[in-house]
From TrEMBL:
Residue ranges annotated for the HTH luxR-type domain, each copy included: 829-894
Keyword Acyltransferase: no
Matches recorded under PROSITE patterns: HTH_LUXR_2
One record GO biological process: regulation of DNA-templated transcription
Name of the protein described by the UniProt record: Plasmid partition protein
InterPro entries in the cross-refs: AAA_16 (IPR041664), P-loop_NTPase (IPR027417), Sig_transdc_resp-reg_C-effctor (IPR016032), TPR-like_helical_dom_sf (IPR011990), TPR_MalT (IPR041617), Tscrpt_reg_LuxR_C (IPR000792), WH-like_DNA-bd_sf (IPR036388), WHD_MalT (IPR059106)
Any one Gene Ontology molecular-function term assigned to this protein's record: DNA binding
Coiled coil: none
């Protein structure tokens, strides 16, 4: 009887691929490039999808005509004899004929490795075609003879043989020569996590109902792309669909996760190693020094080495301080943290030791984080007070805020460095009232007369002025403040100068400030993140979208590396980049970049926040206009409460633009009244609030066009143009040209309309604008044929690209005789499934053209009362209560966005 008959047959085939398994296209492409290597290693911890990946590659290889032999190892095959038995059985199972002299070799005999290796290589050399030997869970093999056999197969293999090993730890084999010769292919732990697209696809297939991009991003961050973690999240959500708000704790506490990690990961580990991992799980990042100090062991280096060797969810972190840092996978760290939390006294003692170590090494952010958890405020104050400078960076404002808010101001009145920490923390998180209270306490302290503290108070007041939309006062304070010596304060001063100068329309000076700062700190990305983000935001304000995208993408990359995705600096850069990507008509990328960041920038500068709010609303509008309008209304109320008039005006103008496109004259008029009232309060404003008057002029022009009053619209457009020229703002000038083109077309002046549109496109090409045109609506898109786009140069290609981004504009139909009671004809574009009559369908079409009741009545030769009565019937049949909702429903039925 063949030996494979008496062995477990499932060892010779991979697990069946589920129809819901996510194709790892990027990794499969890499494996395809590595297909000629002698040895391919896929290395990663448990649950990272190694087996699934190899099963997918096996399927691809077999479709291409290759032969693939599969062997899954278990603990029982750790010895060489068992490994040899199963290896030959797997070859036999796949039809690779082995002669009896090979099958009958004694693996326990003296010199058996060389003997069986020679016989096996000779047999495999006779197999035609490409042959892949895939061994899954190779980490179970720990016999030196097994390693020698595999090494011999690699070194002396026939040309058609390729070995593929999936393992949790790199095998004890000399691989340097293979690596140097380019014969070793490696897929490592860092390559295995799901990317955002794979996470989205997985959740779409495994979680009932739709998850928005913010939730997907949250799950991506929670699991770090860990496939088994993603599976456990989906199980948790199925069991409790309403658990999103407490997802992290739910996933960590789920029995599935506890059982998996306990049994498959740490169940067979030495107790000393488990104890060490539990202790260092409180650390977000660690090196051997801090790990040894917190765990109270001199053996930290060896234990960390063991974790690396066994791929125990430990990941290296790159920092330019000459020391190797690590972090634990977040789900694994949370799991270990749950075990630590069962002994509150033990956890508090560990946090106290961690805080002491970070304070001694002047690492304020981490010292704060642990001090807030050590349950001894007085001792925490003494520890943190030793850490200098008073504010190191923007990397951990959240922890700083939590710690500062846990203190009573009286406790730190005699600690000037902590007073400064509180001032900066409250100011940088836009808690203006609290910041003012702490600044006042600082001014009353005995140390307030020192030059350093005096300069910081001036910088703090300049920051508060910017947050209050008062760039003029901020600039006055900054211009009399010398360059600080502390790097963080240099960063803040440069950022504030860039913001204030750009908001005052002094763009050239803002550019030179950024370049001077960048040259001063070239090679220090940490110092450049905040000024780069503000420079990118200033470029957006100026209208240079291409420059904004370039600077913000670089700033985001460094911010995420230095501080993490959810840090304030990364969120600010991400918001600006998302706005630039949206403008470039790359909405999917904008959604991914913006996801789970808008809440972080709620306390950022008004301009960064407004960019995020408008970008979010416009992305929502592409999917659900009602959701976008609801979101904008909420943001308007929040801005009003905070007294941010310019931000309020931006949101009002955006709501009005949408209402005008939908033909909702009532809403547009109401919003215009609110915007005009706000503008009346700022007739003599400077800086960013001068833009309120421009936004009001722009809104008045849109309403005038909606009411078909083109001459009046052109007068308002002239005001918008004056503002754009005076303040050096590109997008208001482009918008003015677009609105002029529409007005001239209404007046029958097609040559002037074409000239205005050509001017807008020329400026848009230089700045990288696309959505500014598209979002103006189909009425503008209908004018593009006036330009005769027939050239093939880059400008003409850009024009054609913009023109193609519009939905077709339906011109107002000629008056037609309507017959009540007859079904709507298909040529109206209104689906019959809506159950509207011919007349009702015609009226709904005209509503889409932003016509008033009076204009519809004139077009269809009806009385206004009849039009009003039919609109009421339309609302009743569609189950809606407004023109906007009726139009959206009709478009959804047609499959339009």
């Amino acid at each position: 009887m063949p030996q494979s008959r008496i062995l477990i047959p499932t060892k010779f085939a991979p697990p069946r691929l589920s129809t819901r398994s996510i194709p790892r296209q990027g990794l499969l492409q890499r494996l395809h490039q590595l297909r000629h290597c002698s040895l391919v290693l896929v290395t990663g911890p448990a649950g990272f999808g190694k087996t699934t990946l190899l099963a997918q590659w096996r399927k691809t290889l077999m479709k291409g005509g290759s032969r693939v032999v599969w062997l899954s190892l278990a603990q029982e095959e750790r010895r060489f004899a068992a490994f040899w038995t199963h290896l030959t059985a797997s070859l036999n199972h796949e039809g690779v004929a082995l002669e009896d002299n090979v099958l009958l070799l004694d693996p326990n005999a003296s010199g058996s490795v060389q003997t069986v290796a020679a016989a096996l290589i000779q047999a495999l050399s006779r197999v035609p075609g490409e042959l892949y030997l895939m061994i899954d869970d190779f980490h179970h093999a720990d016999d030196p003879q097994t390693f020698r056999l595999v090494q011999t197969l690699v070194d002396c293999r026939p040309e058609n043989l390729h070995l593929v090993l999936a393992t949790r730890a790199s095998p004890a084999m000399p691989l340097g020569r293979l690596r140097a010769a380019g014969l070793l292919g490696e897929i490592e732990c860092a390559d295995l996590p799901f990317d955002f697209g794979e996470t989205t696809a997985f959740l779409r297939d495994h979680v009932e109902g739709s998850l928005d991009v913010n939730t997907v991003q949250m799950i991506q961050e929670l699991t770090d792309g860990w496939p088994i973690g993603m599976q456990l999240v989906s199980v948790a959500l199925k069991a409790n669909p309403g658990s999103l708000t407490r997802l992290r704790s739910l996933v960590v506490k789920t029995g599935n996760l506890h059982a998996y990690l306990t049994e498959d990961v740490i169940g067979h580990l030495p107790a000393a190693l488990v104890d060490f991992m539990e202790k260092i799980s409180i650390l977000r990042r660690f090196n051997t020094d801090v790990a040894g100090y917190v765990a109270e062991t001199d053996d930290a280096a060896r234990l960390i080495g063991t974790m690396e060797q066994q791929n125990l969810f430990i990941l290296p972190v790159d920092f330019d301080d000459g020391c190797q840092w690590y972090r634990l996978h977040p789900v694994f760290a949370d799991y270990l943290g749950e075990r630590i939390a069962r002994s509150p006294g033990r956890a508090a003692r560990l946090h106290l030791r961690a805080s002491r170590w970070y304070a001694d090494h002047m690492m304020l952010a981490e010292a704060l984080r642990h001090a807030s958890r050590c349950a001894d405020p007085a001792q925490a104050i003494e520890l943190v007070d030793r850490a200098a400078p008073p504010m190191a960076d923007l990397g951990d404002l959240g922890n700083a805020l939590r710690w500062v808010e846990s203190l009573q101001l009286d406790l730190v009145r005699h600690h000037p460095r902590l007073l400064l920490l509180g001032c900066w923390t409250y100011a940088l998180t836009n808690r203006l009232e609290k910041a003012g209270q702490w600044i006042q306490a600082l001014q009353q302290s005995p140390e307030s007369g020192s030059e350093s503290i005096t300069h910081q108070i001036t910088l703090l007041n300049a920051l508060l002025a910017v947050l209050r939309e008062d760039a003029e006062t901020s600039l006055e304070l900054l211009e009399r403040t010398p360059q600080p010596e502390i790097p963080f304060l240099q960063q803040v001063r440069a950022a504030l100068l860039i913001i204030a100068l750009s908001q005052m329309g002094r763009h050239a000076e803002a550019h030179s400030t950024f370049h001077a700062f960048s040259n001063l700190h070239r090679g220090n990305p940490e110092m450049g993140v905040l000024p780069a983000t503000t420079a990118a935001a200033a470029a957006l304000l100026e209208g240079d979208v291409l420059r904004a995208q370039r600077i913000s993408a670089s700033a985001l990359g460094w911010a995420e590396k230095l501080y993490g995705r959810r840090s304030g600096s990364a969120a600010g850069a991400g918001v600006v980049l998302a706005a630039a990507l949206y403008e470039a008509d790359r909405p999917a990328e904008a959604r991914e970049v913006l996801a789970n960041r808008l809440d972080v920038v709620q306390h950022s500068t008004p301009y960064v926040l407004v960019n995020g709010v408008l970008c979010q609303a416009r992305l929502q509008y592409l999917e659900s206009p009602p959701a976008a309008l609801s979101f904008l209304a909420e943001q308007e109320a929040a801005f009003r409460t905070r007294g941010l008039d310019w931000a309020t005006a931006c949101v009002l103008a955006e709501r009005l633009r949408i209402a005008a496109q939908m033909g909702d004259m009532h809403a547009a008029t109401r919003l215009l009244m609110a915007l005009d009232a706000l503008a009346a309060q700022h007739r003599d404003a400077t800086g960013i609030r001068a833009g309120i008057l421009a936004l009001a002029a722009q809104a008045n022009a849109r309403v005038a066009l909606l009411e078909r009053r083109p001459e009046q619209a052109l007068r308002y457009v002239a005001q918008l143009q004056d503002y754009g020229v005076q303040q050096g703002r590109g997008r208001p000038l482009v918008t003015a040209d677009m609105l002029s083109a529409i007005a001239f077309d209404m007046l029958g002046r097609q040559d002037a309309a074409a000239a205005s549109l050509t001017s807008a496109l020329a400026a848009g090409y230089r700045m990288g604008l696309v959505r500014t045109f598209t979002d103006e609506g189909a009425r503008l898109g209908a004018l593009f044929p006036l330009l005769g786009l027939t050239g093939d140069g880059p400008t003409d290609a850009y024009r054609q690209c913009v023109a193609a981004s519009f939905r077709p504009y339906q011109a107002t139909p000629a008056p037609a005789v309507a017959t009540a009671g007859m079904p709507a004809p298909q040529e109206s574009g209104i689906p019959e499934s809506l159950g509207l009559t011919r007349r009702e369908s015609e009226i709904l079409v005209l509503l889409e053209q932003a016509m008033s009741n009076k204009r519809i009545a004139a077009t269809l030769n009806l009385s206004p009362g009849t039009v009003k009565w039919n609109i009421k019937n339309i609302f009743a049949k569609l189950g809606v209560s407004s023109r906007y909702e009726a139009i959206v429903l009709a478009r959804q039925q047609r499959g339009e966005r």
